[in-house]
Structure formats: C-alpha cells, structure tokens
Design brief:
Blueprint lengths: L1 H16 L5 H23 L1 H6 L3 H15 L5 H17 L14 H11 L5 H6 L3 H20 L5 H10 L1 H15 L5 H19 L4 H6 L7
C-alpha cells in the first residue's frame, strides 16, 4: 500500500513540474485527486476496520474465541477483557486520528500480537518469542494439552441461566468461551456460528421449567 501511495505522490510532482506555466493550478487539481486516491487506498486496505463493521458484539466474541482457543484454562473474565479491548481497537481503526499500522494487518495476526503482549511469563511467553511461522503451532500444542482439563470441568446450569437472564450477549459470550476452550482446533468463524446456536438453545432452556434437564441435553455441544 505504501509503495502505491508513494508512487502517486511522486507522479503528482513529476506531472505538475512538467507544466511550469500552470504549476499552481496543476498542484491544486492533482492534490485533490491524490488525496481521494489515498483515502480509497486506506479504506480498501484497512482490514480491521472492515472486520469491525460486523458489529461490536461479533468483534468482542471473535477475539474472546481466539483467546480461549489459545489459553483454555484462563478465566472467562480474562477472555472477555481481551475481547473488549480488541473490539475497541477495531472500532478505532475506522477513525483516522486513532489509526495505526496494525489496522492494515489480518485479524488473526493482530489478535496474535495482542495476545502475546498480554503474556508475562510461562510457556505461552516461550511460544510468543518464537519465529512468526512457529508461534501459532506452539500455542495450539499448548492449548490442546490445556483443553483436556477444560473438558473435565462441569458447567453450572444455574450460572448459565443467570447470565441468559442478564442479556443475550452474556449468554453468547459464556457459550463461546466454554465451546472454544473445548475445541481449540476449530476456526473462529466455525466456533462463532456454533456459539450463536448454543446461546439460543441455552436461552430457550432457561425459559422453561425444566431448565436443568434441558441444559443437560446440550452437553453434547461441549463434548
């Protein structure tokens, strides 16, 4: 992207300098054309701003899923914090005054960088200091080991119903978290779709008198 913008800038000068008799008029006209091209270039290459247009909820949950699939033994609260921070960052990528170079990277690359900045010590830090091509593989291997403990953690049906009564977003985020930490090898989009289905089923169960029995039937989602 920068090379194309630089080329356009150089072209502006070489074109106008070749017309010394109309230098001011040329620069005035070509400058407007150049700025429009730059704006379009930035818009087309701003990957994170495009992602943010899916909405704050989807951005938060997508980041939460990334976090939970990489660190399945960490808490739901920490995963939610990560999700909220990413959603705010993604929103800022659509504002020129807050835009950074990270806005022009792929979502997974940005999430990985942000995840690694949160690690202070331990095996996850060891993965994060590896070469770019080795980081994800290392984190996935760790997550596979950790997720075995998550599978053995029972879900509290009462807690799920309390969350669903607070808001659909709470039910969605918890469903996404629980599913993600048990299925660390699946993609963000696949888990996001599953999570919507699960949270809708949880809300339905919690609205019935036999919510405990109903929720027990959902346990296959978390196998």
């Amino acid at each position: 992207m920068m090379s194309r913008i630089s080329y356009g800038y150089i072209l502006l000068y070489t074109t106008c300098c070749a017309e010394p008799e109309n230098l001011t008029g040329c620069f005035s006209l070509k400058k407007e054309e150049f700025l429009l091209k730059v704006a379009k270039e930035i818009e087309s290459e701003n990957m994170i701003c495009k992602e943010s247009k899916q909405g704050q909820v989807n951005n938060t949950i997508s980041a939460l899923i990334f976090y939970a699939t990489k660190k399945p033994n960490d808490s739901w609260e920490r995963a939610m914090l990560f999700g909220g921070k990413h959603a705010k960052f993604a929103s800022n990528c659509c504002k020129a005054e807050f835009m950074t170079s990270d806005c022009f990277q792929k979502q997974t690359d940005v999430l990985l960088n942000h995840f690694c900045t949160m690690q202070s010590d331990g095996p996850h830090t060891n993965c994060c200091i590896k070469r770019e091509s080795e980081k994800i593989g290392c984190l996935l291997q760790l997550a596979t080991q950790e997720s075995r403990a998550a599978v053995n953690t029972s879900l509290d049906s009462g807690h799920l119903c309390d969350l669903s009564r607070q808001s659909r977003v709470q039910a969605l985020s918890r469903s996404a978290y629980e599913y993600s930490r048990r299925h660390t090898d699946q993609s963000i989009n696949a888990i996001l779709n599953y999570s919507y289905n699960i949270s809708n089923a949880v809300i339905h169960c919690c609205a019935t008198n036999g919510s405990r029995v109903c929720l027990a039937q959902l346990s296959t989602f978390f196998d």
